[in-house]
Amino acid sequence: MQNFRLASSLNDKIYFHLDSLPGVVTKLNKIMAFFFGVFLGVSIGIGLIIAFARYGKIRSTRRTDLARTIAAFARLTVQDSRKILPRQFYPPWVVFSQRQKLSWLNVQLEKIWPSVDEAASELIRASVEPILEQYTPAILSSMKFDKLTLGTVAPQFTGISIVESESGADGITMEMDMQWDGNPNIVLNINTKLGVSLPVQVKDIGFTGVFRLIFKPLVAQFPCFGAVAYSLREKRYLDFTLKVIGGDLSSIPGVSDAIEETIRNAVEDSITWPVRNIVPILPGDYSGLELKPVGTLDVKLVQAKELTNKDIIGKSDPFAVLFIRPLPDKTKRSKTIDNQLNPIWNENFEFIVEDVSTQHLTIKVFDDEGVQGAELIGCAQLALKELEPGKVKDVWLKLVKDLLVQRDNKYRGQVQLELLYNPYGTDSTFKNPFDANFSLTSLEKALKSPNSETEALAPEKAGQKKREVIVRGVLSVLVISGENLPPVDFNGKADPFVVLTMKKSETKSKTRVANETLNPVWNQTFDFVVEDALHEMLIIEVWDHDTFRKGWSTTIGETSKSQTTIWIERTVVC
After folding, report:
1. Per-domain residue ranges of the chain
2. CA distance 446 to 469
3. Residue 83, CB half-sphere, CA atoms under 13 Å: how many?
4. What region does 345 belong to: left with phi over 0, alpha with psi -120 to 50, or beta?
5. Which residue ranges run through the membrane (predicted)?
6. Coil, strand or helix: which one is 36?
7. What residues have CB less than 8 Å from 442, skipping those under 6 apart?
8. How far apart are CA 473 and CA 442, in angstroms?
9. Which of 21, 93, 340, 395 has its CA 20 to 30 A from that of 38?
10. What are the DSSP E strand ranges found in 119-224?
11. What's the DSSP call for residue 448?
């Protein structure tokens, strides 16, 4: 093997062996690869660190910009959003019209209508049938549902709104305009006093009105409200046809009108506002949603002038009908003034007010035709919210032909009323500058000394005065349930209902009938105007519906020998 000698400028001599050259090259390659890998790894790491840092900064900037954008949108009003995005640029899937919303709701209602029909039919039967019995006219002995289905045509909603003024902080009040031209199958089994049984079909129902739904109270538990109260807020139009199955209803005089009046009274008393039907969703006490009187309205019907003459010979014989709720027991009628177009009545009436914000006083003036039906001269209406509590308001109301459709501008005369609204619990706060004793209650006035405004009467004289005084107010009675009633029927059951009677005024009310039970549950409230609370007595009787024989009677707080119990809750408002 040859040796090569290389000489440098320093005359150093280095000898290389040819067989050692490949190993040196391999080591140099490894060293270079190591340093290149280190350089590449450091470069990539630094690049990643820089990239992540820059991405974090960009992300933070984007989040800040997004927060600013959201805050800016939160401050936008509806008018601002419409300026930014005009209606012509809305995407096709956006529902922007009330009509389209209602169309969607009506489509969904049609899908679930068979189920709603089944549930609503049972609810209507249970709630309306007792009221039909309550308003059954004298010519009929009974009126019950034989068949009741709402048909296949679902109602149509034509408007939805939220009543912010009456929703409050713990509830939501919704009103829905509804129209229904249905095909229900409603058959009434009617028995007359003459012993004739008539199966009467109610058909061709046309209805337009406003339903009110109250979701209250709002709770922190699904579905976020405790109960739903529903009511017919406004009845704009209601029409139907009565037909005897296999016969002619007109063959019995007066029956058709009596049945129609009974049905309308039942609708008014069972579902029309301010009546509220409560459906509990979650367990709780929802007595605050129940209908309760809030005050009284004293009305003095003074006179009318320039009434339209309805008689061909002579002049009209006018009389007036006044009501807040058009029910027979809540309607007042004045005396008839014969042959007079400027009658003077000077009659006083009192009404119970249940919702001063929505109720109206309605007056209708008729011409008395004797045996024939009275002819309407004109009518007028006054909103109770226009009255100031404790202050007499003297008004002249112009009479019109129709309160809903006022297209007839013919002058029909005017009627004068003096009105005084008295909310419960505030009578003593009203001041009269002409009477220092006006703010006193009737009991305080009676017990007050006649010689001194501050000196009290002797105990025996005070007791005598207290017996003589008349304390007026409203007694609210809630009939809750009964327990351990004695069996009256042959099947060991009973069909009980409760009759409440004010002994002095002879005013009566009764609950619905609870079929085939000895432990009935009623949960019904009744209000009685008490003219003399110190001498009045409430009598409670339980009757069996089938036999009309008295099962037992007792005063409040007592029980019969069979340990029968009736749960009653009383509230006196003076």
Report:
1. 103-289, 295-435, 473-573
2. 6
3. 6
4. alpha
5. 31-53
6. helix
7. 469, 470, 471, 472
8. 11
9. 21
10. 140-149, 156-162, 172-181, 185-192, 197-218
11. B
Of 278, 271, 325, 330, the C-alpha closest to 128 is 271
What CATH number does the domain located at 295-435 have?
2.60.40.150
CA distance linking residue 145 with residue 130, whole number of Å: 10
In the chain, the amino acid numbered 37 is G
| C-alpha torsion 24→26→27→31, nearest 10 | 140
Q: Which tokens sit at 496?
A: 């009980």
Predicted TM-score (pTM) of this structure: 0.57
Q: Quick one: fold of 473-573?
A: Immunoglobulin-like (2.60.40)
Orientation of helix 255-270 relative to helix 98-134, angle to 10° = 120
Q: What are phi and psi of 108, to 5 degrees?
A: -65, -35
First to last CA, the chain: 137
Q: How many beta carbons lie within 10 A of that of residue 151, not counting itself? A: 15
The count of C-alpha atoms lying within 13 angstroms of the C-alpha of 229, restricted to the half-sphere facing its C-beta, is: 20
Most distant pair of Cα atoms in the chain: their distance? 162
pLDDT tens for the chain, 574 residues: list them: 444 444 444 444 444 454 556 666 677 777 877 777 777 888 888 888 888 888 888 888 888 888 888 877 777 776 676 677 766 666 554 544 555 667 778 888 888 888 888 888 888 888 787 887 777 777 777 888 888 888 888 888 888 888 887 777 888 888 888 888 888 888 888 887 777 777 888 888 888 888 899 898 888 888 888 899 888 888 888 888 888 776 666 555 567 777 888 888 888 888 888 888 888 888 888 888 888 888 999 999 989 998 988 887 888 899 999 999 988 888 999 999 988 899 988 888 999 999 898 899 999 999 988 777 788 999 999 999 999 888 888 899 999 988 877 667 788 899 999 999 999 876 544 444 434 444 444 444 444 444 444 444 454 454 444 444 445 667 888 888 888 888 877 777 888 888 888 877 778 888 888 888 888 888 888 888 777 676 677 888 888 876 444 444 433 334 333 345 556 555 554 4
